[in-house]
Amino acid sequence: MVDLNLPPFDYKTKQVEGKPYIFDLLRRKYVRLSPEEWVRQHIVNLLLTHYAYPKALIRSEGGLTLNQTQKRTDVVVFDRQGQPFLVVECKAPHITLTQTVFDQIARYNHVHRAPYVVISNGLTHYCCCINHDTAEVHFMDDFPAFV
């Protein structure tokens, strides 16, 4: 896997039938290691260790229904009242973060209505604050603090 623009961490990997797996701290099991999963695990580590987001309030690979179709959000962080706080869309490092990616997370967040969204390919990250009442979007310099 490529080096990312995210803090390194002690991860566990193993081979299963010749294929790489990485231990997912949230799901507490080994999952297939793809370039997107590599980014997701680094983002989860960042949220847990650098921003002190509570592990119990982070969900990885959660399902949602959008236009009668089942989709999966990469990471959703909930606030202490159980409402979505932050939605993260992870892409593989070779994927360029285009308007299409922003549109994807906007569709997902139309369901979640979280005040913050992040897209990352592990090399570039964008964090936005969203005012759902006015539809205003503001780019942030950093991830939001968890309160």
Automatic annotation (TrEMBL):
Q: Which UniProt keywords apply?
A: Endonuclease, Hydrolase, Nuclease
The domain of life for this entry's organism is Bacteria
The record's annotation in Pfam families points to:
HSDR_N_2
Type I restriction enzyme R protein N-terminal domain: residues covered: 35-144
Citing just one GO molecular function, the answer is: endonuclease activity
Can you name this protein?
Answer: Restriction endonuclease subunit R
Q: Organism source for this protein? A: Spirosoma arboris
